[in-house]
Amino acid sequence: MVMTKKGKIADLRSAEEIKAERRKGRTGVYLVVPGMLVLFLFFALPVIVLLSMSLYARPEGAEIGEFVPALEFGNYVTVLSAYWSELVRSFGFALIATVLALLIGYPMAYLVAVRLRQHGLLQGILLVLLIAPFFSSFILRTQAWKQILADEGWVAQTLKLIAVLPADGHLTATPFAVVAGLTYNFLPFMVLPIYANLGRLDTRLLEASGDLYASPMTSFFKVTLPLSAPGVFAGTLLTFIPAAGDYVNAALLGNNRNTTMIGQVIDSRFFKVIDYPGAAALSFVLMLSILILVTLYIRRFGTKELM
C-alpha cells in the first residue's frame, strides 16, 4: 500500500509538472504572437506585395502607371540587363565604405572602451560624441558634406594648393564624395557594436599575453581581435546593408552617371518613370542579393554568436 501511495503521489506530481509546463508553453506563445504579428504585417506582407508587384505587366495601350496582375518574369531580365552596372557599383561603394568605417571606427571604439575604462567622465564624453551624429538629420549631415567638399571649400582649395587635385578638378559629383559620405554617415553603426563588445573585454588577458612575452601587435591579433570578432561582424553588417541600398549620398554628393547607385534607380522608377513592376523587381533583386552576400559572409567568417 505504501508503494502504491508513493506511486500515486509521484503520478500526481508528474501530472502537475506537466500542467505547469503546458501553462509556461502557452505563456511563451502569447508573448511571441504580438512580435510575429508585427513581423508579418510590416516585413513579410510588404515583401509578398513587392514580389507580386514585380510580376505585373502593362497592357497594350494602357496609360502610364497602369498595370495588371500577371506572371511577367521578363521584368527581372529587363531591369538586370539595364541596371546591372548600378547594382555592382552600389555593392562596390558599400564595401569600400564598410572597410573604411572599420579602419576608422575600430581604433575609436578601442580607445573609448578599453584605454579610457578607468576615466569614466572622459569615456562618457567621447561616447556621447560618437552617437552625436544621430542627433541631427541624415540629409542635413550629407548636405554638410556637400558644402565641405564644394569647389570653393577649404578641402578642395587645400588639395589644389598642394597639387593633389588639378586646378579644374572637383570633389563633388565623384565616387570619392559618395564613398566619403557613406563612410561618415554609417560610421556610428560600425563603432557602437565594436564598443559594446570591447566593453566586456577582460584586460587581464592582455596582461597575461604581455607576461608571456607577446608584443602589443601579437596581443592584438591573438587576443583582442578574436574576442571582439562578434562586434566587428555586427558592425560590418550594420554598415554594409544600409550602405548598399542608400541613395541620399549618391543623389546629393554624386548625381551623375559615374556615381548612380541602385537606390537612385529604384527611386526614379517608382516616382518619376512610374514603372512600378520594374522598381519592385529591382528592389527584390537588391534585397535578395544582400541576403545571399550576407549569408555567404556569415558562413565564411561568422562566429558562433552570430550563427
Task: Give structural attributes.
mainly alpha; 307 residues; 75% helix
Description:
The chain is mostly helical. The chain has helices at residues 2-53, 74-115, 120-131, 138-148, 154-161, 175-198, 203-211, 216-227, 229-244, 248-254, 262-271, 276-301. It folds into two domains: 1-53; 75-301, Orthogonal Bundle (MetI-like fold), CATH 1.10.3720.10. The chain is built from twelve helices and no strands. The chain is flat, with a radius of gyration of 27 Å.
Distance between the termini: 54 Å
How does the helix and strand content classify structurally?
A: mainly alpha
Q: What is the string of SSEs from the N terminus onward?
A: HHHHHHHHHHHH
CATH level-4 homologous superfamily of the largest domain? MetI-like
CATH-defined topology of the largest domain? MetI-like fold
Assess the beta-strand content as a share of residues: under 5%
Mean pLDDT: 86
The best one-word shape is flat
Q: Radius of gyration, rounded?
A: 27 Å
CATH architecture of the largest domain: Orthogonal Bundle
Helices and strands in order, then pairings?
Elements: H1 2-53, H2 74-115, H3 120-131, H4 138-148, H5 154-161, H6 175-198, H7 203-211, H8 216-227, H9 229-244, H10 248-254, H11 262-271, H12 276-301
Short summary:
Helices cover 75% and strands 0% of the residues. The protein is mainly α and 307 residues long.
